[in-house]
Write a structure and sequence with these properties.
This protein is α+β, with helices and mostly antiparallel strands. The chain has 16 helices and 52 strands. The strands form twelve sheets. An eight-stranded antiparallel sheet has the order 34-35-36-37-45-41-40-39. The longest helix has 19 residues. The protein is globular.
Length: 953
């Protein structure tokens, strides 16, 4: 549980998952699933007004078809919360209360078919908007199981030492756990005495149709239903519709004990607040999730249980968590998820949330529990017997079942000492677990938290144990460019806090995990004694790390930080990336990640880096994609995967300048550029990639300019893309086909025809296309994808137009052009459009639009009477440390490209030698140069040009 947000070096959009393991990779991190037609945003304070109408968003609002603007959180509930926040403490943000800050978060509803990611990007460009983001779907995290009766049904009570804890504390009725879920059956014989009743509405007032307690909700006498029948009709009855999830969770936490009936909850003396956030139905969505959290916190719950979640981090959701923690003194406990994968799952992975994984009967990781370094502790989650609908009982599995045990443990601690702060309560539970044995935890060391919940230890040692942790860190970056560069010496500045009892000595040690030979100068710090609540920062001359000058771009650094007191050690992990070389273009309905060596969707096969290929809000449609260039089977450069028998991808290209995106001033065109070469001059080519996205379109334009650097003529050259589309889980039902008229390869799904994807060759080369079926004739794609297979797909014309429709699964394609010949120092361009849409006609329309855009780019000839033959642009300018200088030539020439200060002194040489007639990016690093105006000058035999740029320190 993190109570301070650490510095984020690299932000990656991660996945949404509903307790499903992916069969392609056990550790896949999928991007989140966004709700279509809605985005969430925050208005800047100086621009906010109580009534925000669609006209507020101007031309962008018209483009989106904004139909309605609503509050994200219930405004009446916010006002009520603000009035009652003095029950704990009020956090003021300048002259604005925390509730006032949250009230500026609104939801925009729009009717156009623009995807929510693109819509968020458009809205975020409005100066009055602080941020905008998609609304990520959240779902429950339990896995239903047959309710077969077994001996020792409530085995978990013994495992977590509940019986021994009950000798000291069984839970006090002044403590309330908010069960944010599907609702609690109010008349269940084992729960009805535990149900929280709203003192301002219960009794004679419970059905009078009035808002007696003035919290903005009428007759919420035993909780509230923020989901209602359809997700849009909240009401005052949180009784479950047909789903036992919330009732089962509630019974684990606080079913009545000592009543000779059924089961006993872990904290069976506390009250349970029923807050229904789901719509009615068999697979309910959770439209009321964070309204439910706010309601429970406002109405007096000291602990909030969230046995649900999903992938995709939200700034707005983190704001709510921070507010209920810091301003209302509430501890949020959440499930780590059931995907069986290493995954950031929200809200569990937010700061100020206690994250809970699940164990089995043997104290090992439960098979389907997620795991991650951000998990705080574990609790039993396998075959947990508890209350169900209609007065019943049954077994369920999941982190959903583990979470209420921890929430109940927090309730026992607060029953014993109501003055505990959320941070202290959480840390006591973390610090007193039963540590995992090396055999039980195996490969999941430090990824299931500190151990399994032990309530006896927690109750007995709550006042005596010390526990210090790294709660925040920053990285001292000497050139202040926001990136870690090769050859740079950085310093890790760790903030260490002793959260619990006074410690006689606190020490910190940092050790490298990867790379293991990383040298850390001053790898330990002794803080000496630290009193309870004291916080200290490591000095700047300690924890200094020198990055190897030859460190590869995108190489990862993982550090293990151990903070020790006389009672225990706490471990945190710091993950850094050296010179990240991938970005995601997202101006229109397509969002796609490109790296700097020819991969699309993700950075190689590492699906943790990149967002895939999105169309609107449909989730990533691309498993893997990469560029292939070759003249023969033995001279093939590519970055396509090589199969399970040889993990990873072929690494046929070497970065020259990293992929970077820029937008024009009107935000209607987004351009990406990078350059790379073939590894070891296998063929002898330089490659310049240019991507273009145009607002409102359903395609991304991708152009590869290939220059012959071999010194001799290149014949029989082919260039193509391998694309593994997945329109369904693992590509089940996907088939690939060919449209010869449009030089278009496309994939559709036989079970769901509402989404089609494709790629088209736009340039004039002869097309090559191969429709592959990795589960059939082309099984080698998965097992052992060799150059001979790739070359055959790339170089044999349109050799296979369709994959079979019988037992269709996992269709992929290779699309390209060639053969062509290229003279020494000459270039040729291969252009493609990658697209998606609801049907084949929409793809064909996208091809037509893409061809028009491509022709506009290549049809402007050089005219010596009206042009100097050269343009120079620096992006960004002004810049603080580095910028990219784009030099575009209308004809080839031999040039020197240099940088001068205003005194005429040359400060850098960027290039000397021949350049072809195209755009050339040059990366300029200012080093120790002072702030000021600098001039880029390019001079050749018949071309002269210069451009000013501004360096600001």
């Amino acid at each position: 549980m993190r109570f301070v947000l650490p510095l984020v070096i690299v932000v990656t959009t991660l996945s949404h998952s509903y307790a499903q393991q992916t069969e392609k990779s056990a550790e896949t991190l999928e991007p989140g699933v966004a709700t279509p037609g809605m985005i969430r945003l925050k208005i800047k304070r100086e621009s906010f007004k109580p009534e925000i109408t669609p006209s507020f968003f101007g031309e962008i609002g018209k483009l989106l078809g904004v139909s309605e603007v609503t509050s994200w959180l219930n405004p009446r509930l916010l006002r009520y919360a603000n009035r009652h926040s003095n029950l704990y403490k009020t956090q003021w943000l300048g002259y604005e209360s925390w509730a006032g800050s949250l009230s500026r978060i609104v939801v925009v509803h729009y009717v156009s078919d623009i995807g929510s990611r693109e819509a968020a990007g458009l809205i975020a460009s409005i100066p009055e908007v602080e941020y905008a983001e998609p609304i990520w779907e959240r779902k429950f995290t339990y896995v239903p199981n047959d309710p077969d009766a077994r001996s020792g049904r409530q085995w978990h009570l013994d495992a977590i030492k509940a019986f021994q804890a009950w000798d000291i504390q069984r839970g006090d009725s002044t403590i309330t756990i908010g069960i944010i879920d599907t609702g609690i059956e109010p008349d269940h014989q084992d729960l009805q005495e535990a149900i929280w009743l709203n003192p301002g509405e219960a009794g004679e007032n419970r059905d009078n149709g009035l808002d007696d307690d003035e919290n903005g909700l009428i007759d919420d006498w035993r909780g509230y239903d923020f989901g209602g029948v359809d997700g849009y009709s909240p009401d005052n009855d949180p009784t479950p519709f047909s789903d036992s999830h919330g009732t089962h969770v509630a019974g684990i936490a606080g079913a009545t004990g000592d009543n000779d009936i059924g089961v006993a909850g872990v904290a069976y003396g506390v009250k349970l607040m029923s807050v229904k956030i789901s719509e009615d139905g068999l697979d309910p969505k959770l439209p009321g999730d964070f309204d439910g959290i706010l309601y429970a916190a406002t109405m007096g719950a000291q602990i909030i249980n969230c046995s649900w979640g999903g992938a995709g981090r939200s700034i707005a959701e983190q704001e709510v968590i921070d507010a209920v923690t810091d301003s209302l003194g509430v501890l949020v406990v959440a499930a780590a998820g059931n995907g069986g994968m290493e995954q950031l799952f929200y809200p569990a992975s937010y700061n100020n949330v206690l994250s809970v994984a699940a164990t089995d009967r043997n104290g090992s990781k439960w098979e389907f529990s997620n795991y991650h370094h951000r998990v705080d502790l574990s609790a039993p989650g396998y075959k947990i017997w508890s209350t169900k609908l209609y007065g019943g009982y049954g077994y369920e599995d999941g982190t959903s079942m583990a979470t209420p045990m921890v929430a109940a443990g927090a309730a026992l601690l607060l029953s014993e000492n109501p003055a505990l702060k959320p941070e202290e309560t959480a840390e006591i539970l973390r610090a007193t677990t039963d540590p995992f044995s090396p055999i039980a935890i195996g490969q999941f060391t430090d990824k299931l938290g500190t151990g399994r919940l032990n309530l006896r230890n927690a109750i007995e040692r709550m006042d005596a144990i010390s526990s210090a942790r790294m709660v925040d860190y920053t990285v001292d970056d000497p050139n202040d460019n926001g990136m870690i560069d090769p050859g740079e010496t950085i310093a890790l500045r760790a903030d260490v806090k002793n959260i619990l009892a006074d410690a006689s000595n606190v020490s910190l040690v940092v050790e490298p995990v990867s790379p293991a030979n990383l040298v850390i100068e001053g790898d330990s710090v002794d803080f000496g004694p630290m009193s309870s609540g004291q916080q200290s920062k490591t000095p700047a001359d300690k924890l200094r790390i020198t990055i190897a000058p030859d460190a590869e771009p995108d190489s990862k650094i993982q550090l293990k930080v151990t903070v020790t007191t006389e009672d225990r050690s706490n471990v945190e992990y710091v993950n850094l990336i050296v010179f990240p070389t991938w970005q995601t273009t997202s101006l229109n309905n397509i969002s796609a990640t490109f790296n700097s060596v020819g991969n699309i969707g993700y950075n190689g096969t590492n699906r943790e880096e990149g967002e895939g290929f999105y169309y609107k809000s449909k989730g990533s449609l691309l498993w893997h994609a990469g560029l292939m260039i070759g003249t023969s089977e033995t001279k093939l450069a590519d970055v396509v995967r090589i199969g399970l028998s040889r993990l990873g991808t072929d690494n046929g290209f070497v970065l020259a300048t990293p992929f970077r995106l820029s937008r024009d001033q009107t935000h209607t065109v987004e351009t990406g550029k990078a350059t790379f070469t073939d590894r070891d001059d296998l063929i002898g080519v330089d490659v310049a990639i240019t991507t273009k996205e145009y607002r409102g379109e359903n395609f991304v334009l991708v152009m590869y300019e290939i220059t012959n650097t071999s010194g001799s003529r290149l014949d029989n050259l082919f260039c193509g893309l391998y694309l593994d589309w997945d329109l369904s889980k693992n590509g089940t039902g996907d088939v690939a086909s060919w449209d010869a008229i449009n030089k278009l390869g496309f994939v559709r799904n036989l079970n769901d025809t509402s989404l089609w994807t494709g790629a088209s060759l736009l340039s004039d080369q002869e097309p090559n296309y191969y429709a592959a079926n990795s589960q059939g004739d082309d099984h080698y794609i998965i097992s052992n994808f060799r150059d001979v297979h790739k070359w055959n797909m790339l170089s044999n014309g349109v050799s296979r137009k369709n994959t079979p429709t019988d037992n269709a699964v996992d269709a992929s394609m290779t699309i390209g052009g060639g053969p062509v010949s290229i003279e020494p120092d000459e270039s040729t361009t291969f252009a493609y459009a990658l697209m998606a849409g609801p049907d084949l006609k929409s793809l064909q329309t996208a091809v037509t639009e893409a061809k028009n855009r491509y022709r506009e780019l290549v049809s402007v000839p050089y005219d010596p009477r009206t042009s100097s033959g050269i343009t120079i642009q620096a992006l960004p300018s002004p810049f603080t440390y580095e910028t990219t200088i784009f030099l575009t030539l209308a004809r080839p020439d031999r040039l020197s490209v240099e940088v001068f200060n205003l005194s005429g002194e040359r400060v850098a040489i960027l290039h000397e030698g021949p350049l072809h007639a195209r755009e050339h990016p040059f990366w300029f690093e200012a080093g120790e140069l002072a702030s000021g105006v600098y001039i880029v000058k390019a001079s050749g035999e018949g071309i002269q040009g210069e451009k000013k740029m501004v360096l600001v320190r």
